[in-house]
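yo

u said u wanted the structure for the complex thing, so here. seqs first:
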Amino acid sequence: MSDANVYAVKTLTSKEYFAPGHRACSGCGQAVAVRMVQKALGRNIVMASATGCMEVVSSPFPQSSWEVPWIHVAFENAAAVASGIEAGLKAQRRKGKIDGRKITVVAMAGDGGTADIGLQALSGALERGHDFLYVCYDNEAYMNTGVQRSSATPFGAVTTTSPAGRVNSGQLTWKKNMMRITAAHDIPYAATASPSHPLDLVEKVKKGMETEGPAYLHVLSPCPPGWGIAAEDSIQLARLAVETGIFPLYEIDKGKHRITMNLEKLVPVKQYLKKQGRFRRLSPEMMEEIQERVCKEWQELREKAEQIDPSAGADEALSKEQEGETEAAKIFRVKAGAPV
Amino acid sequence: MFVKIISRPGTTREHETGSWRMGLKPQFLREKCIDCSLCALLCPEGVLKGSGKNTYQTDYRYCKGCGICAEECPEKDIIMVKEEDEA
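structre next:
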């Protein structure tokens, strides 16, 4: 098969920087995302990781899954530690203790470590303009302690601290929009990515690495036990989240919005919601409410993207549809999330 | 007192997670494989490897049997079988 996108997947290194034997649950979407991000980052990196699922599963003492320099720090200060590493590397380079090779500083945290607990450290680091990449793996609750709600939990989702009962059927508030918060700091690069669209994710990680100054990447990571889904469905759910418009893939490059996965038509959110155990108690009215909100936000996003770049219209995507490719190649291209 | 808190890289390999499988394991039919390597890319363990058509295989010492490879294979060339049915 001579599809260029297949080739693009193969250019990814086969080297693993995230060793097997980690204790992630079967079918963990976050482990898939971490592996892909590590492949894109390569080995010239230093990572600071906040407490969270990935810290717990990858570093059961005295073992470690990481094959890159990796530091575990407290829940709230992944961004602060990454700032310190970046400043330290700068100082060592100035004193001639290390050569001038580029070393990417990466901070990783879950949605709790980003949207709730680590928000002020992240805000500070973004404001000071350190040259680092912050990756948030968003599994939409505090999964490693047993599914407690976080501010990134979507409306209507059942967690142990937002249970469904006679009066309420899950989380009462809407998901915190981290992209808008980070973009409000006027950082050079912010993007959303999903492991169901690996090419798109890798491209964004590379862009974030090359950016001078802070870059923010928000990666959706489906969690089979927390979301109440089957282990094999986790990537499919991530794809549905993109296709329904619940988690649109876009980037904000120096203030310009660009939708990287353009959707002709949104899939009804019902298809995404009914597959998950955490949304089982949603009433039809609530589902309607979610659909309305998703459509409104998608419309807003499109307006923002079109305002800057009128060529990012829907017609162009259609004309680029490659002709003569086999059905499997097409499925693959869609699955791998090749940019339209 | 100093306590050694640095772990050697990649040492979780000592812990084989294959026993986590709940009765199902992936089987590679090797009939319609198009060498897209999507299964290798989407394996949460990163133990699914191959180069070229019909060469993909997983390491059953680590495979947790999640079934993502079988679900995502565009040609449905990977199926989940019961452990004891393995040829």
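Chain A has one domain: 2-335. The CA atoms of residues 40 and 113 of chain A lie 23 Å apart.
cya
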